[in-house]
């Protein structure tokens, strides 16, 4: 792991430059999607023996310790005061909001059912990328991504109805909607920071910032509550702590930084389908062969969204220009930015 992972050196904003940034961004983004695709089944395993608050604070504290170790190992500089706000807001979304709300949802809903609501996440990420990330998105992008959301949510709803005969809305659905909104906002804020400091550092500082709060609460919860540490619960907790909350973000934030928050975020349209596959393989939930057909259709719509004509938008300019300030500060210490650092 290089010290300045995913920080991109400045170059002119041209169509070829955007393409060169998108290709590695898509690769890193897909690795992140693959890592996150097992998060809901793993979380479902964890809440079988630990209550939602316990799952949230234990994973945040343990991942925070791992993040602190990483930052010490690479001798990371302290964030600038101007960066702390974005890092803190990102923490609210991906360290606190999504883990807590999704855990609450999974106490009453299956992981496959929850994937219905999570299908809205790519669209929410694109909206927040436009609102807080400053990315200008062309009409073709919105049409293709909107069609992808309609296909995905429509299929998931049909899948749910055929499996359960019920389309009623429960409290778990509202919790999952809150989780998706939290994640979309957290991705936008964290992805913006990853353009400056790299994906690994962005998630690590987000975890460390909340460590003074998460660690004491986790200690109290661990000391005062009883847990059922079955093999499944332990495996689930290990996965959502090490992969979902920490290492998966190395690739995901790196992809958002390189390829654009909204564009790479559309790769998550594939995530619910992968989640259904994991739920079938690990949790024994039914698997519909039509999932493959829908997956191919969604992949085509994601490709169409990426092929939409993009102008030299602020989001792209940020990717190629924002590191200048950070690079100047680092060079004062005699350090150089490695353009090709990868996870």
TrEMBL record:
Keywords: Membrane, Transmembrane, Transmembrane helix. It is found in: Membrane. It comes from the Bacteria. The chain crosses the membrane at residues 21-40, 52-74, 86-106, 112-134, 141-162, 174-190, 202-223, 229-252. InterPro entries: AA-Vitamin_Transporters (IPR050638), EamA_dom (IPR000620), EmrE-like (IPR037185). Residues 25-153, 171-298 form the EamA domain. It is a multi-pass membrane protein. Belongs to the EamA transporter family. This is Drug/metabolite transporter (DMT)-like permease. It comes from Conyzicola nivalis.
């Amino acid at each position: 792991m290089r010290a300045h992972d995913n920080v991109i050196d400045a170059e002119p904003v041209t169509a070829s430059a955007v393409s060169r940034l998108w290709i590695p961004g898509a690769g890193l983004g897909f690795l992140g999607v693959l890592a996150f695709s097992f998060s809901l089944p793993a979380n479902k395993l964890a809440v079988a023996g630990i209550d939602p608050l316990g799952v949230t604070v234990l994973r945040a504290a343990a991942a925070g310790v791992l993040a602190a170790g990483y930052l010490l190992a690479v001798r990371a500089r302290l964030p600038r005061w101007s960066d702390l706000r974005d890092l803190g807001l990102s923490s609210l979304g991906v360290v606190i909001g999504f883990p807590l709300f999704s855990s609450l949802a999974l106490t009453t809903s299956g992981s496959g059912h929850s994937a219905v609501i999570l299908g809205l996440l790519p669209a929410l990420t694109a909206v927040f990328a436009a609102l807080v990330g400053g990315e200008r998105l062309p009409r073709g992008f919105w049409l293709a991504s909107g069609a992808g959301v309609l296909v995905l949510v429509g299929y998931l709803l049909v899948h749910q109805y055929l499996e359960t005969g019920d389309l009623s809305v429960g409290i778990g659905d509202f919790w999952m909607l809150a989780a998706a909104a939290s994640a979309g906002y957290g991705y936008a804020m964290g992805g913006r920071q990853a353009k400056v400091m790299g994906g690994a550092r962005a998630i690590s500082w987000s975890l460390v910032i909340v460590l003074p709060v998460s660690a004491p609460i986790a200690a109290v919860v661990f000391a005062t509550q009883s847990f059922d540490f079955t093999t499944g619960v332990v495996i689930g907790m290990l996965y959502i702590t090490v992969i979902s909350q920490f290492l998966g973000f190395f690739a995901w934030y790196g992809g958002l930084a390189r390829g654009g928050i909204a564009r790479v975020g559309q790769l998550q349209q594939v995530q619910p389908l992968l989640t259904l596959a994991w739920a079938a393989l690990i949790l024994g939930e039914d698997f519909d062969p039509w999932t493959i057909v829908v997956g191919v259709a969604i992949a085509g719509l994601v490709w169409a969204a990426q092929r939409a004509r993009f102008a030299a938008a602020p989001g792209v300019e940020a990717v190629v220009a924002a590191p200048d300030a950070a690079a100047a500060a680092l060079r004062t210490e005699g350090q150089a930015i490695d353009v090709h650092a990868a996870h």
